[in-house]
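Supplementary Methods S3. Input chains for the assembly prediction are listed below.
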Amino acid sequence: MSGKPKLHYFNGRGRMEPIRWLLAAAGVEFEESFLEKKDDLLKLQKDGSLLFQQVPMVEIDGMKMVQTRAIANYIAAKYNLYGKDLKERALIDMYVEGMFDLNEQLMSYGYQPADKKEQHFANMMDKATNRYFPVFEKVLKDHGQDFLVGNQFSRADVQLLEIILMAEECKPDILAKFPLLQSFKARISNIPTIKKFLQPGSQRKHPVREEEVPKVIGIFY
Amino acid sequence: MSRKPKLYYFNGRGKMESIRWLLAAAGVEFEEEFLETREQYEKLLQGGSLLFQQVPMVEIDGMRMVQTRAILCYIAAKYNLYGKDLKERALIDMYVGGTDDLMGFIMMFPFLSAEDKEKQCAVIVQKATSRYFPAYEKVLKDHGQDFLVGSNFSWADVHLLEAILMVEEKKSDVLSGFPQLQAFKARISSIPTIKKFLEPGSQRKPVPDDKYVETVRRVLRMYYDLKAN
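Predicted C-alpha cells for the full assembly:
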C-alpha cells in the first residue's frame, strides 16, 4: 500500500478541492479514486469506510478521514501551515471559515437550477466584493506583510488564492478594486508548489460543466 | 473591562449555543450582550466589531472573534478539550463535524413554515437515527471507554450531548435503539460543570420560539423565506 494520501470523491472540485490545494501547497503527492456512479458510493458506504456515509473521504496516516474541515485541519497542522500558536491559529480559522462560506456559494453555483442561477450569481459576487475581499484587502494593508497571518505562509493564503481564482472565473475583473489582493495573487501563485499546481496536467480540477451536472447529481441523489 | 469572555448574539440558541455549552463545560464564566434591535446591530457593524458583518461574535483574550467554528476551536484548545495530539484532534474534528451537521438541520427548524416543520422533523429524526447516532454508538461500543476520544473528556463529548438533547426535544424516545448513547448521556450530564449548565437559571437557552424568530428577522432583515432540506 502506498504511503500517499488517497482522496475519494468524484472527478470534480466540490468539497474536495480545498483539500487538493492544501496538499499541493504542502508539496504532498496524493492519489485519487473517483466515484463515477452511485454504485461506487454505495460500495464505500457498505464497506464501512465512510463514518457518516459521505465523501470527501481521505485515507491518510492509517485513518479514513471524513468531514472537509477535519481533513483540512489535520493536513494544515501536520505540514506546518497552521500558524505558530493559538492566536495565529485563531486568526487563520476566522479567515478560513469566512472563505469556506464564500466557497460554498462559488462551488454550488454550477449546480443551481436555471431559474435560480442569476440570483445566486449576483449574491455571490456581492458577497465576494462587499463582504469577503474587503476584509482580506484590509488585513494585508494593515500589516503590510506578504502573508495573511504571522508573516508566514499558511493555509489561509492557500485558501484565499483558491477563492480569488474561482471568483475570477465568474468575473475576470473582480479584483479591480483590490490592489493588494492583486499583488497577493501574483505572489502566492509564484510559490513553487502552487505554481506547479496551477500548471496544466496537475490534479487541480476544472469548474463543473453544465453537461456534467446530471452525472454528479446521479451519484449522490 | 471584565476579563470574562463576552458573547454578542440574540437571546436564544442559534449558532451561539454550542459556544455557551463549551465555555460552561470548561467552567468558564461569561457575559452576554443580547441583540434586540436593528440599531444595536448597525452600531456593531459601524464600530467594525464584526469581521464579516455577522454574529456570533465573542470578545475573548483581547480578540473580537467571529465564525462559530473558529471560536469553538480556540476555546477547546485553550481549555484542553481538544485531545492531546494531532490524531486525537483529527477524531474530535470528525465527530464534531457530524454533530454540527446534525444540529444544522435543527437550527433552521424554527424559521420554517408549519408544513415544512413537520417534514423537517422527520428529516432530523431520520438523519439522527440512521446516520449520526449509529456512528457514535459504534465508536463508544468499539473502545468501551467513557469518552469519545482518547479516554479524556473533550469538546466532542460536549457537542454530542448537546446534539442528543436537541434531538430528544423533537422525539423524546429517539435514543431507544442506542444503549451506549443512553449511558453516555447520563454520564456526561453528571459532570459537575455540565450538570450545573443543565440546571434552571443557567445561561443555557430554551427551545427557540416565535419571539426568537421574529427578533432574528427584525435585527438581521434575513431568513424570511427558509425552506426545509
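Chain B has two domains: 6-79+199-220, 86-191. Chain B has nine helices and four strands.
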